[in-house]
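hiii so my PI (J.) wants the whole complex modelled not just the main chain, which honestly fair. so below is everything: two entries, each one labled with what it is. i double checked the lines twice but i was tired so who knows lol
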Amino acid sequence: MTQNPWLNAITLGTIALSFLVLGLFLVIFLNTKGLLEEWGSRIRVTAYLSSTVDLSQALRLGQKVRGLEEVQEVKYRSKEEALRILEERMPERKEWLRGLPRNPLPASLEVRLKGEYQNAEGVQSLVKKLRGTPGIEDLQYGSDWLEKFSAFMALLKVLGLSLGGLLLLATIIVISNTIRLNIFARREEIEIMRSVGATGLFIRAPFYMEGVLQGLLGVVLALGMLYAFFLLFLARVYEPLKGLLGNFPIQFLSWEQMVAMGLGGVVLGLFGTQVSVGRYLRL
Amino acid sequence: MIEMVHVSKAYEGNPKALFDITLKVEKGQFVYLFGPNGAGKSTLLKLLYAAERPTAGEVRVNAFDVVRMKPRKVPSLRRTLGLVFQDLKLLQRRTAQENIAFALEALRAERGEILKKAIQALRLVGLERKAECLPSELSAGEQQRLAVARAVVNDPVLLLADEPTGSLSLTAAEETIRLFEKINLRGTTVVLATHNEGIVNLWPKEKIVLEQGRLSEGPHPLPVAHD
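here's the output for the full assembly
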């Protein structure tokens, strides 16, 4: 790598940039996914009960709902509890609410979904089963935003994979090209090695090592730049928005994810090298 | 040592680069491969070190069946040979000693042995005082000797040289031939390709004569190689 410092610097820079973009995408995607999962865990379906349903009937209904495959937990909320919660949320109306001749709020079953059903499809599936159940007068579920957000996540995933694929291809091409030029630059040495009886492995090995090193160093450089960007920019931009997003803590890539990227760099290095060695270093 | 039986080599633009060559070179011989430019000398040498495969016939070098052996066996054959190329192929950015060491590194010689053998090879060719010189700092004759030193550093049993006196003065050419003789006396079989009739006449040896890809049936004796 010291033989063509400029060429190798350009290659390293290109690889680092590719992985930087990939890494940035990954950080954004993972954090957005995490946020969505957190919001998803707060999804509730509220089944408002008919006024004719008494406590024992409500509890029996609650047990039945608990047995549905989408359901994690069911909580019964009495009319009195519902009124108390409303008073807490609207303290300025407390006196007025207490002055009402009768409690207008219905009892309800607060249904929490299992993890794998905390999405638009899961909610719809549960709602379909609950609708028309005797004793349940109305259902409330705020899945409109969830649907849009899920669609956004799916789009983000597709964009990420497409962009990622293109960047990986570009990285392979760049590494392959650098190795090809290095093979050309060392053609005299290669010819001498062949003439004296050096094995194919001995001749090829340095090129593979170079490719792996470039891939690995490129990833390390990218992760360094990404971390700096994360600390100095992303974290600062997110700070004012944190309250709006439920104080969700954004995170950098985990150690496992960084190691996986490193391994990805190694694999790309090997692959890129093989493209050139296989083509231009036939022994 | 070398045996060729009805060997032919055809290229796309030259269907008879070599045609029906049958010859034998015994161990310990010093043989000229003589012929004008384009006669097929370089092609014949390439067949001997398996840089090319013949179109027909059999080639055996140092007990290797060059035609039938698998490509991964070629390095093993070449480790028994020493090659001196027409264009020398010296590494211009390395010193004389480093040029020789490079060949030993490629053969994965032990570190301790590399320096010792490199110096021995330089001493053999009379270049021990020029160990730190770059090829560009050596004369044409010295560069030739350096190429020979690299070729013999691993004690080959067979040395193949392609036009080693090509660009040399008569004095330098004599030095080169004497060097090859010295190497031959140590037990290495030598095959030296040349078009220079003066060399062949001044320092006569056994001859294989090629003309237009064929062994000559002219005034020179037929296939060679008996002492």
